Amino acid sequence: MSIERLDEEIILPYNQEAILSKDRERLNEYIKQLIGDLERFRLRDIHERLNLLIDLTGAGAIFYLGTKDSTGDYPNGTWRINGSSSTAYLIQVKIAGTWTTQSNLSNASLFTIANAIVSGLTASRLIATNGSKQLASVADLTAWIAGTANEITVTSDGDGTVTLALVTPLAVNKGGTGVATLTDHGLLLGSGTDAVTPLGAATHGQIPIGSTGADPVLATITGTANQITVTNAAGSITLSTPQDIHTGASPTFAGLTTTGGRISATTRITADDSPYTVLVTTHYLYCDTDNGAIEVVLPAGVDGTVYNIKNVGSSGHDVTITPDGTEEIEDESDAVLEDRWCYTLQFETTENWRVA
What we know:
The protein is mostly beta strands. It folds into three domains: 2-105, no CATH class; 119-180, no CATH class; 266-355, Jelly Rolls (Sandwich), CATH 2.60.120.
């Protein structure tokens, strides 16, 4: 049976919630009510141009959301709700002359509509229900996403998106420095929860010098005249004495005063050590010749060098002292120490080695 539009105005019940619900029983009740009302308007006399057409079949009812064209058929793009299935209401659209199921309404499945266009919404925006439980586009996501004071800002981009950013400058108690810019090559000082304090850029040799209860300052190390020399360079500080004073050096002093006596380096050798080259660090050399003669070789002379060399043997064996290269001892090529003899030798460039 086809239901067509009457020439006279009629009012049919329209329950959108029932049509769109997933409740099969609720939809059945609505259809029964609709059929009952239509029967009261003498359904067999309804005209074929009703905006909402219904076909009643033995299996159920089919609701058409559109009108027939001049050929007496529904054009492509017409939607209908097909209730002739025994398991579900089929939501169909006519495509290329064929009714194609897009979704269904049943107790066993979810309600879906493919490619649905909802008027009144803004394209490419999130949607939510408003105070009237109607779908509405979300104009500003900042209503949903809140920043955190002194940490994160949330800014609407005006197109349905937002931009998240760190607060600039980020506070110290949030892991930042509290300042927007820092001195190039500068050092930073902590200030509790306040912004860091730039100490400035250090020049050659400058280092932070502390002061109790106050911020350190940049300064260079100060030497002491005739004692410590400070030389500053890029990335380095060199401390030195006015002259070399290591164990192998020969420093010059205008005067030297010692207290408690002088401790000198002593060395003892035997015939087994011969020939023996004197170390520059030796002051006293004791030669034990009881087991045989000993040859002692002096190092190259340096002005002011003094050696004390003694033959401590008593067996008649000599100690022969030989200078370096062409140097001489008392104008001789060598010197000989008999038992119990001792020479104090002092070097001077012009005189060479002399016995003091």
